[in-house]
Amino acid sequence: MLKKISIIGIAIILILIVILFIFQKSVGLSIFERAVNERVGIDNLSNLPDGLHLGLCGTGSPLPDVGRADPCNVVIAGKQSFVIDIGEGGARNLNLMGIAPTHVDAVLLTHFHSDHIDGMGPMMLFHWTGGATSPLPVYGPSGVQSIIDGFNAAYKIDNDYRIAHHGEKIIAPSGAGAIAKPFTMTSESQVILKRSGLTITAFKVDHNPIEPALGYRFDYKGRSVVISGDTSKSPSLERAAKGADILVHEALQPNLVKKMTKALDDKGLNNTATITRDILDYHASPEEAAQSAQIAGVKQLVLSHLVPPLPSRYFYPAFLGDAQEHFNGPIIVGEDGMFFTLPSNTDIINYDELM
Q1: DSSP class per residue in 56-73
Q2: Pairing between strand 338-343 and 51-58?
Q3: Do the beta carbons of residue 219 and residue 345 sit within 8 Å?
Q4: Cross-strand partners of 338
Q5: Share of the chain residues as helix, strand and coil, in percent rounded to the nearest 5
Q6: 208 closest CA partner among 111, 75, 133
Q7: Which pLDDT belongs to residue 5?
Q8: Does the pTM of the predicted model rise above 0.85?
Q9: CA-closest candidate to residue 72, choices 53, 59, 54
Q10: Is omega for the bond preceding 212 within 30 degrees of 0, making it cis?
């Protein structure tokens, strides 16, 4: 009897497979239409509670990683949205997370390594074609003007193409590109923007020989988020992150990187091997990030800008090493699409995944 039921079950599955194959075109169109209706126009900013919110739109590094975009974070304070660094794939992920680049008030750059700026072109494009009538503001230390001038020049011809094709009523020429908002660091930390209850503080970090290299702290209605930028273990960061709710800290696991270096040496790839050796001295390990989080007394540590790439969560314990021995709070290995909500004037940290 069981054998007969099993044969019937297999037959039904085979018939369904045949039907799906025969009607693949119509079924595919139907599924696509449903997905479009569900996804188009999603705005995950519209119903957020008042407070501070953090999204990870890129947790990777320059090393190829199929599952992670280059460095990108988004911080939302009330109705204000800021993107911190915009690495390759960051603007794509913002869209996938239901956070329209058009609604971003500004981009803040920590420094000018390629992996922190190479998503600027798509970010400018999505910001503009979504309906912006003024350029995307980009804040950064000395040198940001040259960066933005370069991107604007590179995209000038493309902008002209799009205006000619779609017309000025659809994409206003005044909204194209970005506008640099440079500031000079005259002290270890300083407020660079203050409005509508939000204070953004820039602070110096140690990413020698890159100078200046910065992190940013966001304070809003009793909640605080700190983004480290690229740094080795930095006392200046520990001071700036004092008492923060969340610290997003970059992390490189030396034990894993050294294994990569050995494999590169063994295969005669000397240039790349030298680079993987050199990066050890200006990035923090997960253990060092945990030590800084403990010293600063933050509530939660999120690791990002992960080096080396991690193919799956199975490798997280090897990546973390002894980090959990150095920090009393939770440590999260960042993934693209993670989203944290910190309602105003509470101690609550809610977590969601937008991708």
Answers
A1: EEE---SS--TT-PSSEE
A2: antiparallel
A3: no
A4: 353
A5: 40, 25, 35
A6: 111
A7: 62
A8: yes
A9: 59
A10: yes
**SS3 assignment, position 307:** strand
Joined together, the tokens standing for residue 300 give: 């939660």
Q: How far is CA 9 from CA 21, 22, 34, in A?
A: 19, 20, 29
Structure tokens at 92: 């794509």
Phi, psi of 141 (to 5 degrees): -75, -175
Quick count: other Cβ atoms within 10 Å of Cβ 269? 14
342: three-class secondary structure by DSSP: strand
Give just the sign of the alpha carbon dihedral 59, 88, 115, 247. negative
Burial profile 113-141: b = 16 or more Cβ within 10 angstroms, e = fewer? bebbbbbbbbbbbbbbbeebeebbbbbbb
Q: Determine the angle formed by the axes of helices 24-39 and 2-22, rounding to 10 degrees.
A: 80
Amino acid at the residue 259: K
Identify the CA nearest to 322 among candidates 288, 281, 283.
Answer: 288
Residue written as token pair 């240039």:
271
Our CA angle for 274, 229, 330, nearest 5°, is: 105
Question: What's the one-letter identity of residue 258?
Answer: K
Cα–Cα distance, 56 to 268 (Å, whole number): 36
Q: Could you list the mean pLDDT of each consecutive 10-residue stretch along the chain, which spans 355 residues?
A: 67 80 83 85 89 98 94 97 98 96 96 98 97 97 97 98 96 97 97 97 97 97 98 98 98 96 94 93 97 98 97 96 98 98 96 95
CB 238 within 8 A of CB 228: no
Which residues are marked as active site? 115
Provide the residue type at 129 as one letter. Answer: T
